[in-house]
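pinned: reference chain
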Amino acid sequence: MKRFVLFIFLLLNVGILPTTAQETCDTAAANATVILDTALTLLQTGNVDGATTLISTARDSLATCTASEAAATPSIVEPTTEPSATSAATEPDDTETTGSGEYTVVNPEVDINRSIAFVRFAHTSVDGGSIDIYRGRDSQPIVARLDFGEVTDLIPIPAGEWLFTARPTGTGTGGDVLYQMRWNYVSNSSWVVTAAGVRETSAFILEPLSIIRNNYRDMARVRVINLVAGAPRITVTALDGTVLGNGLGWVDLRDNMIAPGEYILDAQTSDGRLLVTPQQFTFEANITYTLMAMGGFNGVPLQFLAFETPQELTRVRFINNRIDVLDMHYRPGNELLISTFDPQTETDWYEFPSGAVTFVAVEPNAGAFGRELAALPWQLRPGRDMTIEITQNGMQVIDIALHGYED
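pinned: its C-alpha cells
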C-alpha cells in the first residue's frame, strides 16, 4: 500500500528532523526503504540538504523500532505540575467544535491548575487524502477529516509527553496506522503538526514544529517553509525586493522579523515553476505568520497555505471589593491601567502580553509611586483568563480559566 509523508517540523530555528517515534521493525524497515529511495532521488538532483534530512529520518526510524505492535500505545508521561492559583479553576469539558472546513476538532479535557501546551494541525500533502489524528489512547481523533489546505486553530492539551497516531479518515482506532510520533510538549509551548509530501513517492512520518509567539518588538514574525511536492528548492520574495526565503530545500524554513505592512509575495522553484497568482498579505505587528509553500503536483498549482498565530496573551479583569476608590498601575512600565476605580465594581477584560507583571493599587491621583494599597506580582500564562480581587487585606487571584472555556 502506498504511503505518504506527514511532517511536523522540529524546533523554532532548526530545519532538521529529530528521532522519530517507536514503531515495529517491519514497519520501520519498509518506511526506511521508501525514505532512502526518495533521498537518493534528491541527491541525484543536487538537493543535499533534503537528502540528508531524509537519511537521518530513516536511520532514526530503524534505531527506535520495537519487536511488536504492543509498543505502539505507550503510557502517557504525567505532566509536571504548575503552581495553582489561589482558588481552583474550572476544567473544560470535552467539547466538539467544527472548523472552517469539513474537519472537526475534539478539545481534550485540561486541568487549569496543571501545565498546558497548545497544538494546531495543518495539511499540505497534495495526494494525501483525508486523515484523522489520535492523541494517546483516545477513542476518537483529536482532529478528524483533515484535508489538503486546511489548518486548525490552537488546541490546548495537557503538557507532557504524548503519542500522536495518524490514520485514514473514518477507519477508527482499528484502522491502518500510517505513523506514530511521541513528543514532549512542554508547558506553555505552541506547536503545529503538518501533513506534507507525495503519497506516491514518500513514507509517512510525524515530527513537531515549535511556534514562537513572543519577543516581537512591534515587528511581524514571518516563517516560510518549503513543502512543495517533488522537493525542488524555492525562493520566496516580495514585490519590494524583500527575500523571505532564498533557495530553501525540502522542509527547509526561514524566520523573518519584518516591518508591519502590506506585501505581495511570489514563489519560484529551482525548476522554473512560479506561484500562479502572486499573493498579497497584510502582516501586523506582534503576530506570528506561517507560510507553507505547497502544491505543484498533478495539476495542483504552487500556492501558500498561510495562517497567523496570535501573540501569547493573558486576559485580566479586576474586582474592587475595598470600601474606597483607587487607581491601578502595572509594571514594568509603571503605566496607569485604571483611573478612579470605584469600590464594589468590576472591570472589563484587559489583554496583556504573557510574562512577569506586577499590579499595584494606589490612592487616586497618587501616581505610579504613590502609597501602595495593595500589590500582586504574577507570571501571566498564555491563553488564560484571570480574575483579580482587591480587598482591604490585599490583592489576590480568585479565578483562572482558559480563554474560550468560560462558563
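why pinned: Helices lie at 25-44, 48-63. The radius of gyration is 24 Å.
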